[in-house]
Amino acid sequence: MGTVKINPEDVFDVQFSCNTSTLLDPEEFRRQGHIMVDFLADYFNDIEKYPVRSQVEPGYLKKLLADSAPNQPESIEKILQNVRKDIFPGLTHWQSPNFFAYFPCISSTAGILGEMLTAGLNVVGFNWIASPAATELECIVMDWLGKLINLPKTHLFSGGGGGVIQGTTCEAMLCTIVAARDQMLDKVGRENIDKLVVYASDQTHFSFQKAVKISGIKLENFRAIPTTKATEYALCPISLSKTIQEDKKTGLLPLFLCATVGTTSTTVVDPLKPLCEIAKEYGIWVHVDAAYAGNACICPEFQHFLNGVENANSFSLNAHKWLFSILDCCCLWVKDPNSLTKALSTTPECLRNKATDSKQVVDYKDWQISLSRRFRALKLWLVLRSYGVVNLRNFIRSHVKMAKHFEELVAVDERFEIVAPRNFSMVCFRVSPLALQEKVIFVEEDQVNKFNAKVLESINSCGNIHMTHAVVGGVYMMRFAIGAPLTDYRHINMAWDVIRNHVNVLLKNLSSVASIV
Ligand SMILES: *Cc1c(COP(=O)(O)O)cnc(C)c1O
């Protein structure tokens, strides 16, 4: 071991920065807080100026920033200058009104301020006593939201079930798989873990596969049941039933089904009612993943998509996607909280307390993967209160209306086609083979796909708007997902112009089949 040399200046620095007023001086917090709010307000004002999809190359930031952390303090003003100069180019602007990629992750004033309040209070509510309001507010808002989307009473605290806010759907899936797994293994014996089988469709989000992988279930026992055009790529109950029967024949143990309301590729809805009935017959745990579309169910006209959910064991949606609640806010409801807490609880001596022992309280550490947890309920509470149900429904409906408008624009241009039914606020479309036939005599599906991929990259690399794609049933499609908080009809019309302009140019330059590739 070498001797550590102490620089007297460093010692002075340490003493200086240990002055608590530097860490959280209320007046300094007020000053810098105002600067930060102004900075963000200006960002929202100017957001249309930036290319929506970041145009930087990998490793760009290392070239711009210092090799090591600064020894001396730097001012917030200077840091924010660097944010604008160095960080902004490396952002894909998810809140831009011209962002139509993935699914939206919608900001709102109430959501941002809720996050700010959570960060400001910074309580760690792993159990009830660690911050009773954090737990109790979460129980209350989860019942509020559950009622709002018309979940059956059995899934709410008021009906013997209950809800928890987690970070992401993937975590919610993992927790419910583990609950189902332990419930089953308690019955059949731990040694049978390799016999457990989980079911989903080939359209189920890959976060489910990730959750299965972590859960210790054999990956060979993951059934991604193929879907077909005949059912618009929804999971077919007959296929499920057949797959389960085959597994039973070979002595495997059907455990878990993940059904989706609003798939990520095309927003298809799996038929919950018949799927849940089959699952019930075999004692399979059903989780319903409604990450994006579940939010629309605050409007009564979308609630029919949840018919059958009363027979599901668990249900989740991402309020950060389409309920204005800022990443991360995954709301999970379970019918039988005991199965969840049985699998996930640990109570070390240091966390023993009267309230827990009395069994009168919820200790949310037993409802999730990690121990520590943020007071996320605040932002959801702020969103629900600040906008009220009336406005929240109007926001959702306005996105759906804009999607209908975009769909109409696409439908009247015969060079384009809609390739999947629009259920919510996303339109799946492509340049049709017909448009290419004017240029190329014999058009193969693969060439249509390649041409559409070229169109999308051309659009994204110009930065005016941003979309992403999906491939379903061999068809490459562009996904136009509406929901950014500042998007209005003029942005939809502008986007359509941008799309058509790129297609015009690419079609014009197209002289032969070879030029598609
Ligand atoms: C976005 C999405 C997910 C992934 O959610 P995470 O919260 O990132 O795990 C899962 N399922 C569906 C249907 C989604 O749309």
Automatic annotation (TrEMBL):
A Pfam family annotated for this UniProt entry: Pyridoxal_deC
Coiled-coil residue spans: none
Entry keyword set: Decarboxylase, Lyase, Pyridoxal phosphate
Entry's Gene Ontology molecular function annotations: L-tryptophan decarboxylase activity; pyridoxal phosphate binding
One cellular component term from this protein's GO annotations in UniProt: cytoplasm
Keyword match Lyase: yes
Keyword Lyase: yes
Matching Gene3D superfamilies: Aspartate Aminotransferase, domain 1 (3.90.1150.10), dopa decarboxylase, N-terminal domain (1.20.1340.10), Type I PLP-dependent aspartate aminotransferase-like (Major domain) (3.40.640.10)
Positions carrying N6-(pyridoxal phosphate)lysine: 321
PROSITE patterns membership: DDC_GAD_HDC_YDC
Cofactor(s) of this protein: pyridoxal 5'-phosphate
GO BP, one annotated term: carboxylic acid metabolic process
Family: Belongs to the group II decarboxylase family.
Protein known as: Tyrosine/DOPA decarboxylase 2
Source organism of the structure: Capsicum baccatum
Lineage: Eukaryota, Viridiplantae, Streptophyta, Embryophyta, Tracheophyta
